[in-house]
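REQUEST FORM: STRUCTURE PREDICTION
Request ID: SP-0412
Submitted by: Lab K.M.
Chain count: 1
Length (residues): 221
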Amino acid sequence: MNRLVYFPVPGRAEASRVALALSNVEWEDIEVDGEKFAMMRSNGELPWDMLPVLQTSNGTIAESSAILRFAGQYSGLVPSDSYQAAKADEFIDGMGPLARALDTTFGISDVDERVQLRKALFESEGEGTKNLQMYEKKIGESPTGWAAGTDEMSIADLKLFTELFALFSGNYDGIEVPVIKSYPNLLKYHSKVANEKRIKEHYGRVSKDDIRWTFLPGAFD
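STATUS: Completed
RESULT:
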């Protein structure tokens, strides 16, 4: 039995959760709190001292992108064509700057300071804005509408869809829904992925009051 261990939020594990859910692999979604995370780290259970991790019969896999690539093999979301597979990897790796920019706001206990920093990320010259503009451009250039220009939905789409749109769920104070409204290509992309049959079925029981409401069709209408 594979065990995906992460906090009870979408965050950097959601793409892998979806990939595992769409596979035939037996797995368990293990949600932990900060105390359990600290205990796992002190016990040496985390190869890079971070979550998520995927515990398998062969050992533990760390780093969210590595887990996603592993899970994607079982869900058929890693392109069989080597070029398209590389383009999916390229897109995944290219999302690093936004994650690193957001990382600077975590761990700040002062709410006003945290909100101010996050708002600044999405101002005209902010790092968040620069990354959204890049995503907007990439999606606009895609011949298929999928993130990496692949023929079908890939692991790159799971990562972009879950990590980008989760930012506007209300879980990240200081990042407001109107920000995403300025990016028509990304809104069109959201509709494409949210209405993809497997994704729509996966989130079929999610309500608009759930933290995952941004993954529902029409969420930003």
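NOTES: The longest helix spans residues 127-141.
Reviewed by: T.R.
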